[in-house]
Amino acid sequence: MFANTPAPPYFAVIFTSERAAGDNGYAETAARIVELASQQPGFLGMESARQEIGITVSYWQSLEAIKNWRGNYEHTLARQQGREKWYSGFKVRICKVEREYGL
Amino acid sequence: MFANTPAPPYFAVIFTSERAAGDNGYAETAARIVELASQQPGFLGMESARQEIGITVSYWQSLEAIKNWRGNYEHTLARQQGREKWYSGFKVRICKVEREYGL
Asked: Which are the contacts of A79, defined by CB distance < 8 A and separation ≥ 6?
């Protein structure tokens, strides 16, 4: 359930979103996008939860890996649908993870 | 609901956690800790959701602000209780936010 990330530095994409009403194909596409992301070179893991807002954090080896994933065709189509019908709002934050610890 | 963060760079703490069984004072302390964090110098906002795992991302002006918050007495006591009884596991990742965009 936790992403099993390596020692920093690595990169994180924090995607915070508010869903618009109705499924409109969201669930099916979201599952497909997770599957596709996890097959991308440089993908390190993903963590996700949704209540009032959804937070999905994906972890990547490099900014190059993030850029390549962004260029993926199915992912690009999904982002268009996201803007048009699935989300009433979202934020994407690209981060460099500098330190990690845990229990 | 979304943190209204300024133009990057700024910093993020991604706290991913799995709750242990029982409340044991968790809800009350969690609310207090959010209240305290939001009063800290350099605090920029917070986003949170919990399903199977919980993800809380807090945003900060500087690493110094994160360090000062970490030194807060009530926060330190809460983290001890977290390790002892509230969480079966967690990860903390300290990040520099380099780019942000959204809808």
From this structure: none
CB B95 within 8 A of CB A12: yes
pLDDT given for residue A1 in this prediction:
83
**DSSP notation for B38-67:** HTSTTEEEEEEEESSSEEEEEEES-HHHHH
B53 at interface of A, judged by CB pairs closer than 8 A: yes
What distance in Å separates the CA atoms of residue B59 and residue B71, rounded to the nearest whole number?
17
* A1, A18, A94 member nearest B18 (Cβ): A1
Secondary structure (DSSP) of chain B: ------SSPEEEEEEEEEEPSS-TTHHHHHHHHHHHHHTSTTEEEEEEEESSSEEEEEEES-HHHHHHHHT-HHHHHHHHHIIIIIEEEEEEEEEEEEEEEE-
Of B50, B89, B100, the CB nearest to A51: B50
pTM of the model: 0.97
The interface residues of chain B toward chain A in range 67-86, judged by CB-CB distance below 8 A, are 83
3-class DSSP state of A98: strand
The ipTM estimated for the assembled molecules is: 0.96
- Which residues lie across from A100 on neighbouring strands? B93
Instruction: Specify the pLDDT at position B1.
Output: 83
Please, is B45 exposed, middle or buried when counting C-beta atoms within 10 Å of its C-beta (0-12, 13-18, 19+)?
middle
